[in-house]
Amino acid sequence: xxxxxxxxxxxxxxxxxxxxxxxxxxxxxxxxxxxxxxxxxxxxxxxxxxxxxxxxxxxxxxxxxxxxxxxxxxxxxxxxxxxxxxxxxxxxxxxxxxxxxxxxxxxxxxxxxxxxxxxxxxxxxxxxxxxxxxxxxxxxxxxxxxxxxxxxxx
Length: 154
Known about the structure:
- The protein is α+β, with helices and mostly antiparallel strands.
- It has helices at 2-14, 18-40, 140-153, and strands at residues 43-49, 52-54, 60-63, 77-82, 91-99, 112-117, 130-138.
- Helix content is 32%, strand content 29%.
């Protein structure tokens, strides 16, 4: 027994911990980078609708579910994606939320939002597409905590 124990002690003294230490350092750096991404990376949340119509002044009236209307404010960035040709990618037109129904001076229905295009007018013959309005920028950690809260509530 003593012979095998002395051999194991010699092998421990002769062993270098440098590979283990290097692996530990690299793993720690990767975990720290992942945690920084989890806390600081921006994730943009959008509300989308395909139910919109063009007004005489060139602005769009877009319908959304009633529960999402409260998330909109004038000045929020929006995008209109138009698919003119099915073989090509959709054309992205920048826009901005111009008006919301909670303001007393407008005549918008309670489930509509007025969006003004920042770029050129709509191409002729455009009848379909999707309007995306940016409602919030959050971190991945915020999304995880919201999802876990929803799971706990069920």
